[in-house]
Amino acid sequence: MPELRVIGINKRFGTYQALSNVSFTVAPGEILGLIGPNGAGKSTLLECIAGLLPADSGTIKWQDRPLSLEERKQILWYQPDNILPFAEQRVAATLSFFRQIHGVSSKDLAQLVDELELPPMLAKPLKDLSKGYRRRVLLALALLSPQPLLMLDEPFDGFDLRQSLAVMDLLRDCRTGRTIILSIHQLSEAEKICDRFLLLDQSCVLGIGTLDELRKQSGLSTREGLEEVFLAIT
């Protein structure tokens, strides 16, 4: 049984059709990559799933039962792109606050801080951090949360290759018992971490599946990467 089922999501802003009959499923423990160019509707889709934007039509189901807006708060953790919570607070104070409200042990928080290489930043306010370190703090907040489904918008933006690979390892380690949707525009990074991919362009789903399944759909050989597959399908 799919963990998450999205059925027929439509969203229009005036005359602009942002999402058109978007449907897909996510399996338990899967990392699904939401792939598409800027303006494809990736962030809008995540906001509709989270309930931050009202969809014009469609249904969100979790373990085959419809999710109310209130229930989504218990099931979903949505990390938008480019937010800055508690910008004036020191990083250590913000992490400690989230640790306490989510009931995480001090030991687990310390391990997470070390894995994200955050110790040099703990005494600084979030607003003073570089883009990459802000991303690490936001990722720490997401991983401290108890929700079984994480939806992260552009989690690798601002990281170099080494940092991206380290964060990928951390996400793989944490997904035991959790399902993850990643909105990513860097296709080479998506290929390294995602189990399956949902290709979104001009408000519509163009394809969904593993890289091998999408290669077959696009008629490409097994040597082609995600970038070539995406260009062939779009």
Give structural notes.
The protein has nine helices and ten strands. The longest helix is centred in the middle third of the chain and has 14 residues. Helix 3 packs parallel to helix 5 and helix 8 crosses helix 9. The protein has one domain: Rossmann fold (3-Layer(aba) Sandwich). The strands form two sheets. The chain has a six-stranded mixed beta sheet, with helices on both faces. The protein has a four-stranded antiparallel beta sheet with strand order 2-1-4-5, with helices on one face. The protein starts with a strand and ends with a helix. It is globular and about 50 Å long. The protein is 38% helix and 26% strand. It has 234 residues and is α/β, with parallel strands linked by helices. Helix 6 links the parallel strand 7 and strand 8.
Give the topology.
Layout: E1 4-13, E2 16-26, E3 31-35, H1 42-50, E4 57-62, E5 65-66, H2 69-75, E6 76-79, H3 91-102, H4 106-115, H5 131-144, E7 149-153, H6 161-174, E8 179-184, H7 187-193, E9 196-201, E10 204-209, H8 211-218, H9 226-233
Parallel strand pairs: 3-8, 3-9, 6-7, 7-8
Antiparallel strand pairs: 1-2, 1-4, 4-5, 9-10
Descriptive terms for the model:
six-stranded mixed β-sheet; four-stranded antiparallel β-sheet; 234 residues; alpha/beta; globular; 38% helix
Q: What coarse outline follows from CA principal-axis ratios?
A: globular
What's the average pLDDT?
A: 91
| Rg over alpha carbons | 18 Å
Helical content band: 25-40%
State the total count of DSSP E strands.
10
What's the end-to-end separation, in Å?
30 Å
The main β sheet shows up as:
6 strands, mixed
Q: Please report which band the strand proportion falls in: under 5%, 5-15%, 15-25%, 25-35%, 35-45% or over 45%.
A: 25-35%
CATH-level-2 architecture: 3-Layer(aba) Sandwich
- How many structural domains in the coordinates? 1
For CATH, the homologous superfamily is named as P-loop containing nucleotide triphosphate hydrolases
Report the total helices.
9
